[in-house]
């Protein structure tokens, strides 16, 4: 057994462990199962990488995101540690060779997604490997009460059947007591320990800004930071819109979301990691496990659906221990948008019973029978026929799939996206020469805004209804436009395959898991309510609110959030000190807001607020270079 500290120094060049890392590593080396609850930036990966390196054999790591797997494996390879990643798109022959390498090639780490554990070849080869540890990263995904519940994660329990003697370590940065209990039960922990470090991030300023002109405030925040930043949004379109806005304002930015091709994702990520692009505008899929320590600003442009998501995303700031900011920009419209996106499309038990009944009627399944046929399912047509809300029906089908009532194919979530490449004038000329498709093209342009600027998801069934053309004709015309370079088309099969797994018993089928559905629905409602309570609460320290949510008690204000630094709450002497510091600085030289923020120790937002007060009082002015100067 090699000494953990020697491994830490040799491969990571750290002199010592931090927080609970050493205690966690010791517990794993003693053969115990471990649940490690560490904040973002708390060094979770070392908690399984070090003990895996200390002993003979290989560590199997289950991780949810391909980008995360690739990032981790590359880091290990850069340190001279032999590692393998089973990512998507590899051939059967390559998969076979990689698994053989793990058995015979003296590799130390095998990274894979939970979906890979469904493959018989993977399970068979794991049984042949000399394994010293199973690591389940982002373990909250295994819990039905976790915000990112991923049914495939339940496959992780198969590892206990394959190698019951091998210890398991589960790691996450966001777990309530309920989620933690679910993790230990689903992974069938035996003799185990739970370690939880303080979730407090004292170097991060947490703030909520109420602003009608959100883009203006976003620009100000990004303009005043010299280092890397992340802007989180809730939709792919918004990621593209915000990145374009920042670039027009001469702030280097790019966007990242799940619909980008693999090669383009890697290119965008590397540009940001190498500081060639300063701001990454992304959906919440971005950042998990990405090791970039110098992020000084994380902005939430829209309200997340839970405090778990918010805390994990905000925690990607300041991982180097230096001062950083996590700011949410919001206004009165955001609450309604949040509820519309996350709550109004949640199916209750009554809707599930209706959905299941219509599903059986659609495929003409008699009561009491189980069809073994694989059905081709035209989802949009189904929703239109029974006048069902599409997002709610989609979520309902996922619940039926999770509870093994039906099985859905992976193609269900595939979409058709279009972006016009021609200018509007060129398009007019084209349509004059191809008048037969002009009404169809005009319908698309009237239905979808921004389609000249961004890849836009379109609903071919909806276009079919509006134009009275068949969906096949719509797709043929889109293909012709793509061939003529009028548009860029990414068309994928919108249908899915559906298999019924239990005999039809209508309401009785749903009643078997109705209580669980009601509890999960209430959990999602509670998550949104807790998030909104945090946004609206400007009386209690932000750090106190966050720690309390995760079950950690503190009576001490952080003195580093918008609540603690509210000018209305500061005593007169504190405000005078800030004003005095600014005026003293401007006596020696005229300075931009960025220069002032860089040179003064106070919080950025407090400085900006004080500058505004000094402007209103007539003590300072702004020159033609957008610099602050003393009023003469």
Structural description of this entry:
This protein is of the alpha/beta class and 632 residues long. The chain folds into five domains: 4-196, P-loop containing nucleotide triphosphate hydrolases (Rossmann fold), CATH 3.40.50; 204-339 and 529-549, 3-Layer(aba) Sandwich (Rossmann fold), CATH 3.40.50.300; 343-413 and 496-512, Arc Repressor Mutant, subunit A (Orthogonal Bundle), CATH 1.10.10; 416-490; 572-630, Winged helix-like DNA-binding domain superfamily/Winged helix DNA-binding domain (Arc Repressor Mutant, subunit A, Orthogonal Bundle), CATH 1.10.10. It is 44% helix and 15% strand. Strands 3-4-2-5-6-1-7 form a seven-stranded parallel β-sheet, sandwiched between helices. A six-stranded parallel β-sheet has the order 8-13-12-9-11-10, sandwiched between helices. Helix 5 packs parallel to helix 6 and helix 19 packs across helix 20. The longest helix has 23 residues, at 514-536. The protein starts with a helix and ends with a strand. The model has no long low-confidence stretch (mean pLDDT 87).
Features:
632 residues, alpha/beta, Rossmann fold, Arc Repressor Mutant, subunit A, 5 domains, seven-stranded parallel beta sheet, 26 helices, 44% helix, globular
């Amino acid at each position: 057994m090699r000494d953990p500290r020697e491994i830490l120094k040799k491969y990571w060049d750290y002199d010592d462990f931090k927080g609970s890392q050493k205690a966690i590593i010791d517990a794993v080396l003693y053969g115990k199962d471990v649940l490690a609850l560490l904040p973002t930036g708390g060094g979770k990966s070392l908690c399984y990488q070090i003990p895996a390196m200390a002993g003979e054999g290989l560590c199997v790591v289950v991780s949810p995101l391909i980008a995360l797997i690739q990032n981790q494996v590359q880091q290990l390879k850069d340190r001279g540690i032999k590692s393998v990643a089973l990512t998507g798109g590899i051939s059967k022959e390559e998969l076979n060779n990689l698994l053989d390498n793990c058995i015979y090639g003296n590799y130390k780490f095998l990274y894979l997604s939970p979906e890979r554990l469904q493959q018989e070849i993977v399970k068979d080869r794991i049984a042949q490997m000399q394994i010293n540890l199973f690591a389940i990263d982002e373990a909250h995904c295994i819990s039905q009460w976790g915000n990112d519940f991923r049914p495939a994660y339940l496959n992780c329990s198969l590892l206990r059947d394959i190698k019951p003697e091998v210890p398991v370590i589960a790691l996450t940065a966001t777990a309530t007591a309920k989620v933690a209990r679910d993790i230990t039960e689903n992974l069938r922990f035996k003799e185990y320990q739970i370690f939880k470090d303080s979730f407090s991030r004292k170097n991060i300023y947490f703030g909520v800004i109420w602003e009608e002109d959100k883009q203006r405030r976003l620009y100000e925040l990004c303009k005043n930071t010299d280092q890397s930043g992340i802007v989180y949004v809730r939709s792919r379109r918004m990621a593209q819109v915000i990145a374009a806005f920042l670039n027009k304002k001469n702030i280097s930015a790019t966007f990242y979301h799940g619909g980008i091709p693999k090669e383009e994702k890697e290119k965008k990520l590397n540009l940001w990691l190498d500081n060639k692009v300063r701001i990454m505008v992304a959906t919440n899929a971005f950042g998990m496990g990405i090791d970039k320590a110098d992020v000084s600003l994380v902005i939430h442009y829209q309200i997340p659906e839970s405090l778990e998501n918010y805390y994990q995303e905000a925690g990607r700031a300041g991982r180097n221990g230096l001062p950083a900011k996590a700011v949410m920009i919001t206004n009165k419209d955001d609450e309604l948008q949040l509820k519309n996106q996350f709550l109004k499309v949640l199916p209750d038990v009554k809707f599930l019973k209706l959905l299941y009944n219509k599903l059986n009627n659609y495929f003409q399944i008699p009561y009491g029978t189980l069809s073994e046929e694989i059905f081709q399912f035209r989802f949009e047509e189904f929703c239109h026929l029974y006048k069902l809300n599409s997002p709610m029906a989609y979520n309902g089908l996922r619940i039926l799939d999770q509870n093994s009532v039906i099985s859905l194919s992976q193609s269900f979530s595939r979409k058709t996206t279009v972006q016009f490449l021609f200018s509007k004038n060129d398009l007019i000329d084209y349509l004059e020469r191809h008048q037969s498709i002009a009404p169809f093209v005009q319908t698309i342009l009237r239905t979808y805004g921004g389609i000249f600027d961004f890849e836009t998801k379109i609903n071919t069934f909806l276009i079919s209804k509006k134009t009275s053309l068949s969906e096949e004709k719509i797709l043929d015309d889109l293909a012709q436009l793509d061939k003529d370079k009028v548009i860029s088309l990414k068309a994928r099969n919108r249908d899915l395959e559906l298999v019924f797994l239990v005999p039809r018993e209508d309401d009785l089928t749903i009643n078997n898991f109705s209580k669980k559905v009601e509890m999960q629905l209430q959990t999602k409602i509670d998550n949104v309510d807790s998030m909104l309570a945090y946004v609206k609460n400007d009386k209690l320290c932000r750090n106190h609110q966050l720690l309390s949510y995760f079950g950690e008690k503190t009576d001490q204000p952080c003195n580093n959030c918008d609540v603690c630094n509210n000018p209305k709450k500061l005593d007169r002497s504190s405000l005078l000190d800030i004003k005095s510091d600014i005026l003293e600085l401007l006596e020696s030289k005229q300075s931009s807001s960025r220069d002032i923020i860089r040179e003064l120790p106070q919080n950025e937002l407090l400085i900006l607020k004080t500058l505004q007060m000094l402007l209103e009082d007539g003590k300072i002015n702004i020159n033609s270079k957008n610099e602050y100067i003393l009023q003469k």
